[in-house]
Amino acid sequence: MTDTGSPSPSRRSLLGWGGAGLALGAAAAGGAAAMARTEDGTEPAGSAIAFHGPHQAGIATPVQDRLHFAAFDVTTDDRDAFVQLLKDWTAAARRMTAGHTVGEGAYGGLAEAPPDDTGEALGLKPSRLTLTIGFGPSLFEKFDLTDHRPEALADLPKFAGDNLDKNRSGGDLCVQACADDPQVAVHAVRNLARIGFGKVVIRWSQLGFGKTSSTTPEAQTPRNLMGFKDGTRNIAGTEPDRLKKFVWVDEKDGPRWMEGGSYLVARRIRMHIETWDRTSLQEQEDIFGRDKGEGAPVGKAKERDEPFLKAMKPDAHVRLAHPDTNHGATILRRGYSFTDGTDGLGRLDAGLFFLAYQRDVRKGFIPIQRSLAADALNEYIQHVGSALFAIPPGVRDQDDWWGRTLFSEEA
Amino acid sequence: MTDTGSPSPSRRSLLGWGGAGLALGAAAAGGAAAMARTEDGTEPAGSAIAFHGPHQAGIATPVQDRLHFAAFDVTTDDRDAFVQLLKDWTAAARRMTAGHTVGEGAYGGLAEAPPDDTGEALGLKPSRLTLTIGFGPSLFEKFDLTDHRPEALADLPKFAGDNLDKNRSGGDLCVQACADDPQVAVHAVRNLARIGFGKVVIRWSQLGFGKTSSTTPEAQTPRNLMGFKDGTRNIAGTEPDRLKKFVWVDEKDGPRWMEGGSYLVARRIRMHIETWDRTSLQEQEDIFGRDKGEGAPVGKAKERDEPFLKAMKPDAHVRLAHPDTNHGATILRRGYSFTDGTDGLGRLDAGLFFLAYQRDVRKGFIPIQRSLAADALNEYIQHVGSALFAIPPGVRDQDDWWGRTLFSEEA
Ligand code: HEM
Ligand code: HEM
């Protein structure tokens, strides 16, 4: 007889397991506060980002390296069960963003039960994990919420060139997980999905491997898969005035439950990489209205120089996307590059998973994307997925939970 | 009239572009030699790994964080054209692994031509990029090479439980790109595919986001998506005797062109994550024969303690995979976790992209995998992709090229 059936190895293993969780917890407790800041004002890659605050983290937060984005459909019509799920998710998100396991080691302390946490992030740093929840238009059809749907969460029209795949679009809920370590982001989404078993199911998910925007102006601007610096003229996390003006819903906007929140448009944009790669440097630069090496606007020397739109071709991307062309419309971009293997024709299924935050979709993504109908870039890209979410305000403290303002008050 | 048509902005931009390449080159020149080593003897994440040597890098090299693996089919039957491609690939790989762009900035210095390099890795560090080429069994059917196919590159039998998808299996060639930054790995595969246009086409590709083996015993052992430490008992890059014995083809083995090479088995192994997550801790630990927290073998206290196989259940994975159960069969594992979104049923398409290097497939993967027919783990996994490659020896110097020993000599 072997000794595997005896209690001792499992207890020891249980201790090992719980012990690792505790060690992690201790490291995380020091977290954001104790760790030194890096030169560009961002947290070091391993540290924890505060979960509580007036706004959800993951929007104005300096962009982390990796993304796992998941859209969920609600499968229960029991409102109480759904509210309980939001509370359970909040508790788990609070722990995971601090670098803890979900729950305290093995479930109920019993080797006979599945562990609370799936374990693959044990021993990894908090990695600046942020978890950001959103509510899709279809959620408001459920649970008698139609009156609460914000007007600023306006349905997107069909745009020129859209070729949307239903299986990569929509969703009652979303969770955006960003972290410097992909295993930490994947672990978080997986554990939320697991907690939601029987109440929600993942509709689609997207991994992003390279940020394409930095929301810290001091950092080196990352490059997208077309090889251009992306995110140069973005709203920075360090610009409270512009965040207030263009990103955060305020008390005048209504509905009240959205105060401190924002709206998110997600678009899966496939790039025709192979065609792009056969385009001349001159044409590539004309298309964006910026040069490839430095990222400077046409006729200017430096990346951060003010673009002179009239020097650009009329169909240049930057010219058409610029606020001056769109009555001031301005969004916060937070997209990621993706590569999901190859399609049936041996072409890389790669592109930009575009994420834009704004105070009102009607004054942000919609007018800009309409203007981009004339974009020279359209020959090389195609929008293949689309989703829209109301991003509720932040979780204020230990007793608060995701969506409380919508689900527990008469807003 | 705008000034975009005039030569000056494009020349300036060309300089900017070339300049960035030079800066990178300079950083890389210091590379592996100049940069300090880290505590565990591995290169720092940003540095360059030597491309030249008796063996290809990417096998005994300490495992980098990310993977982009691509299998190609050859579409030309012009042998000279194919040999030229191998030379062009070698030149590009030599530059990219050192942190340079492909070519010297813009193609021929002309803004009218597409740039040599697609650009998205500009400004990024070499990131310990390694590029490892392999030749699949089907390549030997082409170009009159049937006589040169090594016996040790034995066709894999159909194993119990295999559910292989042709679109994720096979390939005439492979390139394994490993780097600490996924954008660097993706950039490398994309640029090789681009150089191969008209001669080879990508058959399938796989992104791996988290290493599941470390080949440096001092480093913290990474965890796979089942939450267990993976790679504890592996061959380390620091064990020349075991590498010689189990990994590198030597002069006695034949064929001569393979001396210094190895053989690679790649298996895409899907995990039934949702079922696994509902399994008790005790059962999970029984299945592997190790505990989840520490990774110690059953009945032992520490991860590195010698496993006592008889203490494990007869169908425990470690017991069945251990050399003692398989007449000494030993492989070098170098796999990565993957998550490729969700399947039609809302389940994560996630698992282990298993990579095993060995001196002879008949004495490595095949007997171990046969033994694993009885593995308790099989209830939770399924092999859905399979491929096999002869990994030729390393590129010795500036004049040498990938595959020279096969294509230019009477071996
Ligand atoms: C694959 C698709 C896209 C690519 C490759 C791309 C790339 C770029 C690049 C390289 C820049 C210049 C650098 C910068 O300021 O960030 C830029 C700017 C910008 N893009 Fe895009 N973009 C894409 C899609 C979109 C979409 C769908 C929108 C919104 C509907 C958008 C809105 C903007 C805005 C607002 C700017 C800044 C314009 C300015 O103020 O100068 N982009 N984009
Ligand atoms: C999803 C599939 C698999 C998972 C999750 C998995 C996981 C593990 C784990 C956790 C260990 C113990 C730690 C260690 O020594 O690395 C291990 C050991 C091992 N596995 Fe796997 N494995 C998988 C598939 C395979 C396959 C297909 C093979 C080869 C055919 C294999 C061969 C081995 C070997 C040789 C050992 C070391 C045994 C020893 O010497 O103690 N594994 N595996």
UniProtKB/TrEMBL annotation, chains A, B:
Its cofactor is heme b. SUPFAM superfamilies: Dimeric alpha+beta barrel (SSF54909). Its EC number is 1.11.1.-. It is an enzyme of class 1 (oxidoreductase). The keyword Signal applies. Residues 56-209 form the Dyp-type peroxidase N-terminal domain. GO terms for molecular function: ferrochelatase activity; heme binding; metal ion binding; peroxidase activity. Residues 221-395 form the Dyp-type peroxidase C-terminal domain. Its main location: other. GO terms for biological process: iron import into cell. InterPro entries: Dimeric_a/b-barrel (IPR011008), Dyp_perox_C (IPR048328), Dyp_perox_N (IPR048327), Dyp_peroxidase (IPR006314), EfeB/EfeN (IPR006313), TAT_signal (IPR006311). One of its GO terms (cellular component) is cytosol. Coiled coil: none annotated. It catalyses: heme b + 2 H(+) = protoporphyrin IX + Fe(2+). Binds 1 heme b (iron(II)-protoporphyrin IX) group non-covalently per subunit. It is found in: Cell envelope. Keywords: Heme, Iron, Lyase, Metal-binding, Oxidoreductase, Peroxidase, Signal. It comes from the Bacteria. Involved in the recovery of exogenous heme iron. Extracts iron from heme while preserving the protoporphyrin ring intact. Belongs to the DyP-type peroxidase family. This is Deferrochelatase. It comes from Streptomyces variegatus.
